[in-house]
Design goal:
With 87 residues, the chain is α+β, with helices and mostly antiparallel strands. The chain contains three helices and four strands; from the N terminus they run βααβββα. The chain has helices at 10-23, 36-44, 81-86, and strands at 3-7, 50-56, 59-66, 72-76. A four-stranded antiparallel beta sheet has the order 1-2-3-4. The longest helix has 14 residues, at 10-23. The protein is globular and about 35 Å long. The protein starts with a strand and ends with a helix.
Length: 87
């Protein structure tokens, strides 16, 4: 397996991130579903130091980011340990 990491670019990736967000089983950042407008506003606020989308072949399978406080978050649509270990 070889994952590909792509730097998040708002013009290209907001819709993909929104789909990934809505496919998550769990959320720690919000209790209710986020609207697409709210999501776009959040993405454009540049909340993270580094932000990447994760692809398996050409399919988006998640994202990861590093905050300005150097915390790391990895969000995958699959619970696969293989994906997590490779990220």
């Amino acid at each position: 397996m070889s994952l590909k990491f792509t730097i998040f670019e708002p013009d290209k990736h907001i819709d993909i991130l929104y789909e990934l967000l809505n496919s998550r089983k769990y959320s720690i950042s919000h209790r209710n579903a986020t609207t697409k407008i709210e999501h776009k506003k959040f993405c454009l606020s540049n909340p993270y130091r580094y932000w990447y989308l994760i692809y398996n072949q050409d399919n988006p399978i998640g994202a990861f980011y590093i905050t300005y406080e150097n915390c790391i978050a990895i969000n995958l649509i699959s619970d696969s340990k293989n994906y997590f270990n490779e990220v």
